[in-house]
């Protein structure tokens, strides 16, 4: 078993989480102090984090940069169709580590994550939509003995979940194809790896900490830039195992 360090995960996932926590704490403190400059101060905090991330991104080997970009694709898919379209049109510049393009990626990804985390309580757990691609992705990571990078597993997970959503009728037709095209542009895998059977993957998903009462629930895209769910019914969709099985087994 080979354990590969995955700086891309640190970059766009873990560090962005830290950035979001910092940003959320900063806003809270400022509000408590009764100041009215929360937005501009918060913006500055996010900007600093973005500069730090951008510097790290430019030093990454291509495979790690691609893995990190899986999370950027996710951010566009769940919350910002315009950002997703920018990733499509400027993908070549991003891969070439063009400064302005990378800066926009990091800035927007950190902003999206920070705002979802900051408004989580008011929006009844909306940050759950950040898990798109991750329930299947974690199962792929685990069954591959972590030889698949986190970002690569999330890329595959996003594709399979979008296909599942289309099969269930909760995701607009064509969404999965657009996600596939963008991920392939970023040289990311989009098909289930041979390392695990469908049954093994579902077995791991059943043991996922987000699965309660035997029901597998997934954050599911409605279309590019919007997710299924609301404050009342929650931000995940219950999936039938038969549907899940078919979508993972027979990609159309
Ligand atoms: Zn992730």
Mean pLDDT: 81
Task: Note the gap between the termini.
Answer: 32 Å
Classify the helix fraction into a percent range. Answer: 55-70%
Overall shape: it is globular
Query: Under CATH, the topology is which?
Result: Dehydroquinate synthase-like, alpha domain
Using only C-alpha atoms, the radius of gyration works out to 18 Å
Give the bound compounds.
zinc ion
Q: Determine the CATH superfamily.
A: Dehydroquinate synthase-like - alpha domain
- The oligomeric state is single chain
Written as H for each helix and E for each strand, in order along the chain, the element string is: HHHHHHHHHHEEEEH
What is the CATH first-level class name? Answer: Mainly Alpha
Work out the strand percent. under 5%
Q: What can you tell me about this protein's structure?
A:
- The protein has helices spanning 7-32, 38-58, 62-79, 81-89, 91-95, 99-118, 134-143, 150-168, 175-185, 198-206, 241-249, and strands at residues 216-218, 221-223, 226-227, 237-239.
- With 252 residues, it is mainly alpha-helical.
- It has one domain (7-249): Dehydroquinate synthase-like - alpha domain (Dehydroquinate synthase-like, alpha domain, Up-down Bundle), CATH 1.20.1090.
- A two-stranded antiparallel ribbon has the order 1-4.
- Helix 1 (7-32) crosses helix 3 (62-79).
- The longest helix has 26 residues, at 7-32.
- The chain is globular and about 45 Å long.
- The two termini are 32 Å apart.
């Amino acid at each position: 078993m080979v354990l590969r360090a995955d700086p891309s995960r640190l970059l766009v996932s873990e560090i962005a989480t830290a950035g979001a926590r910092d940003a959320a704490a900063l806003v809270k403190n400022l509000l408590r102090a009764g100041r009215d400059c929360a937005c501009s101060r918060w913006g500055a905090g996010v900007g600093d984090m973005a500069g730090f991330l951008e510097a790290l991104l430019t030093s990454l080997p291509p495979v790690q940069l691609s893995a990190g970009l899986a999370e950027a694709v996710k951010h566009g898919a769940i919350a910002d169709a315009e950002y997703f379209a920018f990733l499509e049109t400027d993908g070549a510049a991003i891969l070439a580590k063009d400064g302005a393009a990378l800066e926009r990626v990091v800035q927007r990804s950190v902003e999206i994550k920070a705002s979802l985390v900051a408004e989580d309580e008011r929006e009844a757990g909306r940050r759950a939509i950040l898990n798109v691609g991750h329930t299947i992705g974690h199962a792929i990571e685990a069954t591959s003995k972590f030889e698949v990078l986190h970002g690569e597993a999330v890329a595959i997970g996003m594709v399979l979940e979008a296909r599942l959503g289309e099969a269930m009728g909760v995701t607009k037709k064509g969404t999965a194809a657009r996600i596939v095209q963008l991920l392939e542009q970023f040289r990311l895998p989009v098909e289930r790896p041979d390392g695990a059977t469908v049954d093994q993957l579902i077995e791991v998903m059943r043991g996922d900490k987000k699965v309660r009462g035997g029901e597998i629930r997934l954050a599911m895209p409605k279309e590019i830039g919007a997710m299924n769910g609301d404050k009342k019914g929650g931000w995940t969709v219950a999936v039938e195992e038969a549907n899940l099985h078919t979508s993972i087994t027979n990609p159309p």
